[in-house]
Amino acid sequence: MMRLNMFRIILFSFLMTILIFYISIFLSSIIFTYPERLWSSILSEEVKFAIMLSIFTATCSTLISLIVSIPVSYALSRLNFPGKTIVEGFLDIPMAVPPIGLGVMLLIFFARTPIGIFINERIIRFVFEIPGIILAQFAVISVLTIKILKESFDGINPRYERVARTFGYTELESFLYITLSAAKRNILGAALLSWTRALGEFGATVILAGATRFKTETLPIALYLNLAVADLGNVSALLCILLLIACMMQILIRKLLYRRFVI
Prior knowledge:
The protein is mainly α. The protein has 13 helices and no strands. The mean pLDDT is about 85.
């Protein structure tokens, strides 16, 4: 019993150490400046613009990511085809590439390749424009969304779909009414997690869309621009906003995905 208690004490000590570490650095950004200056910075036009643009682009990129990731993850979960392991491994590569690297590759594609130049000049402009923010966020979060949703579909027994087929459901209907219904909590949780990640995306965004005030200024880019000119009031305000949104999203995610799968 004594050994067991000692083991639990050691585990709890490690838990408290990492918790205190992160609480300390999070609180430092809040108590760094005076409340009056913090509030005035939050109400500034620049911060309001960054919040609205971030919410808009993160929502767009998350919706696009869900539209793409749901069929892709379901295909990876249910279909067997030659080279499936290679495809899965290839889709994991973006997770190992720094976001700045993804941004550089996107910029090269749209600025140097014939197809990319045609798309950027004749169809929709991505370079140094708001659509570039959405595309950069999508490039970063889509792999995460696919990974989470595939694990969700893997956890749903295919037998339910086969039973639905015996009752006259088509393959599409069994997917829509049975599988998606069973995975709806996980899909919503994946959407919230992807949205939170998109909100804080910086590396790929700043390379592809640039860092222009009141144009492509999302919350992370606004943080970078204000830090560059040592405007610590706005820096603290932006940090507080990002932390508050992240905390609320993480609480919602864990309530939705409680004991369903590990993030």
